[in-house]
Amino acid sequence: MHETAQTIIGQFNPVAVMFFCIFVASTFILTYWAAKRTRTTKDFYAAGKSITGFQNGLALAGDYMSAASFLGIAGLVSTKGYDGLIYSVGWLVGWPIIMFLISEPLRNLGKYTFADVVAYRLNQRPIRAAAAAGSLVVVVTYLIAQMVGAGTLIRLMFGLPYEIAVVIVGTLMISYVLFGGMIATTWVQIIKAVLLLSGATILVFMTLYHFGFSYGELFRQAQDLYGAKFLEPGGLVTSPLDAFSLGLALMFGTAGLPHILMRFYTVPDAKEARKSVFYATGFIGYFYILTVTIGFGAAVIVGQKLIMSIDKGGNMAGPLLAEALGGNLFLGFLAAVAFATILAVVAGLTIAGASAFSHDLFVGVIRRGMTAEKEEVKVAKIATVGLGVTAILLGILFKGQNVAFLVGLTFAIAASANFPALLMSIMWKRFTTLGAVTSIYTGLTVATVLLILSPTVWVDIIHKQEKVAVEKEIKAIEEPLKARIEALEQQKVGADASLVTQIDAVIASEKQAAESLINEAKAKIPKPIFPLNNPGIYSMAAAFLTGIFFSLVRRDEEAEAKFEEEKLRTFIGIRAE
Amino acid sequence: MRKKFTTRDILEDADFKSLSSQKNTISVILTILELSIYFGFIALIAFNKPFLASKLSGAITIGIPIAVGTIILSWILTGIYIRWANSRYDTLVKKVKEKLGA
After folding, report:
1. What is the DSSP track for A322-391?
2. Is A129 helix (H, G, I), strand (E, B) or coil?
3. How far apart are CA A120 and CA A103, in angstroms?
4. Three-class DSSP category at A2
5. CA geometry: angle at A56 spanning A54 and A59, to 5°?
6. Do residues A289 and A132 make contact, with C-beta atoms less than 8 angstroms apart?
7. What does the angle CA A363 – CA A364 – CA A366 come to, to the nearest 5 degrees?
8. Which of A101, A222, A565 sits opposite B31 (nearest CB)?
9. Are A255 and A97 in contact (CB under 8 A)?
10. 3-state helix, strand, coil in chain B (%, to 5)
11. Which residues in chain B are closer than 8 Å to A565, comparing Cβ atoms?
12. Is A572–B45 a contact, with Cβ atoms under 8 angstroms apart?
């Protein structure tokens, strides 16, 4: 099965570049068209509120499905087997929550950002400042993760240097948002979603064709190659509490991502908002189901050895499978799709960050809501360039760093800082300004601090040198021991029984001595101060409890009175903008 | 001219009350269902790995259709909500809006 032991991945790939140029050329035509239609704030932030539910469903899918989910999950399944599926599921389950609790009130109560909803009946300035902080931290951390991922992936698939890749991605995303605002961003996301869904569908079709359209055969071969364990849940989830905590952050983090929430303002009313979640959930769910087949297919057809020799994280599993089944042409196509995938996500993040800056911070906090429309659009455009340049610089600065934890941080903060305040402002009459502000800052701080103290950051990043030193020390004990035991074993050949017993005793005692040395060394690995890798369960609880506590401490009767009127808007969209 | 209702009248209106309470009920029920489905799956991974590892047919473990099923069920729940909202909810909204003259 391993006839394709070679790959052109990592070299300059003219086919991929050609497909990519076609994509960029068509998005530029699109941006030119969008630029002519982008005049008001409503155009810039919300595409004139004229996107249909179906279009927005595709755009949401394009906004949400990052390269991490396209390449990362398929890679995780191909290298870790069943454990990868846990992520496929986790990335989807936030969407029904968005639909049942958030989408319609969000659309009815807000105008351009989710801060509009939280601030609706509360004190504008402190709320907007806090919500903008929550949004901007989420946007910037997620942007760094995307940029570093983009640089690495594009270097592998196009053979371009890391820095150039980051600059290309940054420049393109700035151009889309700066000139075409939300209209261009939306259509880039729609095109990307269609390309990604069709590319993945073709890949799955070819994979199944290879196995005679029999999943039984695919999984039988996977089991033959990697053992029954490959198809069972294994070591990825060890602590139940950590698993629940990760699940909470993935689920409610999705419902607190500013670039996702912002998309609900691009449709004309709550009915279309609700429809768009239905379509988005269908597309995203379908895609994650495809990644399962892609992952297992790559493990069997390409083989883990080759996948991991190109990229240790397995990120190239999908492209390698495409190359094995469809040759250079299909590989080039998928590489361009991956590029488009990254662009659509970073463009969505950039416009969300720029709006938090202009609509919430500049207009809401600095100008107290009094700004001419022209000026607001101008500030949003300046913020777009500023954010884009920052993202490029941070992307280059973080080159070669392990940024996987940033995705976890993004979701933990979105679930803890943004989601609780948003939900309580919609659902709870007694929620107050003090409650909202303290809830947002508490969620933000607790999630960030706990993640820094967690094993992923405290041990693997901050105390990396100590950990590596200990690992070296252990190796220095194990390797001579292995050689010594081998030598002793050889002495046993042809020796009489009493000598064999003697040698066995020596082996046993040496093993024991080495083991105690190893344990001693292991004790020197720095311990994490916080035991879980995913702080979600604690940071979310802290945000909710703080919000509830400070709302109960002091009543805000004005806000309570407004809640009654707000109901008309929440439920039937009277006077919705 | 139809008589115009004030905000207060609408808030006290029987149709509006039924609309808002129905919407809250269905949202909460479906949210709880989704949470049970997903955290049920996580609980199986955390506490009952052998069940997920048991063979369904050939090499396929029961865990694989369960994972895929969690995704599909989640989508079906959004479909149920859409069906309810497009028929019952929207009709009530229309009725209340007519009363308001909006």
Report:
1. HHHHHHHHHHHHHHHHHHHHHHHHHHHHHHHHHHIIIIIIIIIIISTT---HHHHHHHHHHHHHHHHHHH
2. helix
3. 16
4. coil
5. 115
6. no
7. 70
8. A101
9. yes
10. 80, 5, 15
11. 7
12. no
- Please say if the pLDDT value at position B1 is more than 60: no
Asked if A419 and A444 touch (Cβ cutoff 8 Å), the reply is no
> Are B23 and A274 within 8 A, CB to CB?
no
C-alpha distance from A295 to closest chain B C-alpha (Å): 13
What pLDDT is stored for residue B80 in this prediction?
97
Instruction: Let me know: does A95 contact A281? Beta carbons within 8 Å.
Output: yes
Query: What is the distance between the alpha carbons of residues A356 and A361, in angstroms, rounded to a whole number?
Result: 6
Are A274 and B68 an interchain contact pair (Cβ–Cβ within 8 Å)? no
Residues of B in contact with A271 (CB under 8 A): 85-86, 90
Per-residue b or e along A504-531, where b marks 16 or more CB atoms closer than 10 Å to that residue's CB: eeebeeeeeebeebbeebeeeeeebebe
Q: Which pairs from A235-239 meet CB under 8 Å and 24+ separation?
A: A235/A83, A236/A80, A236/A83, A236/A86, A237/A83, A237/A86, A237/B42, A237/B45, A237/B46, A239/A531, A239/A532
Size of interface A-B (CB pairs under 8 A): 148
For B61, phi then psi, to 5°, come to -90, 160
Q: Do B71 and A231 touch (CB under 8 A)?
A: no
Q: How confident is the model at residue A5 (pLDDT cuts 50, 70, 90)?
A: low
Interface probe, candidates B13, B75, B92, chain A, greatest A C-beta count within 10 A: B75
The pLDDT score that the predictor gives to residue A2 is 46
* Residues 228-267 of chain A whose Cβ lies under 8 A from any Cβ of chain B: 228, 231-233, 237, 240, 243-244, 247, 251
Q: What is the DSSP string of B48-64?
A: -HHHHHSEEETTEETHH
pLDDT score for B58: 87
For A60-81, what is each residue's pLDDT tens digit? 999 999 887 778 889 999 999 9
Q: Which two tokens stand for residue A238?
A: 């060890």
Q: Calculate what percentage of chain A has a pLDDT beyond 90.
A: 65
Q: Are A47 and A266 contacting, i.e. CB atoms less than 8 angstroms apart?
A: yes
Cα(A350)–Cα(A136) distance, integer angstroms: 10
Q: A37-400: which CATH architecture?
A: Up-down Bundle (1.20)
Burial of A285 from C-beta contacts in 10 A (0-12 / 13-18 / 19+): buried
Question: Which H or E run includes A484?
Answer: helix A464-492
Q: Residue A89: closest CA among chain B residues belongs to which residue? A: B71
Q: Which amino acid is at A490?
A: Q
Give dist(CA A345, CA A278) in Å, integer.
Answer: 20
Q: What is the ipTM of this complex?
A: 0.94
Least Cα separation, residue B29 to chain A (angstroms):
9
| Window 465-504 of A, Cβ < 8 Å to B | none
**Mean pLDDT, to the nearest integer, of A476-489?**
87
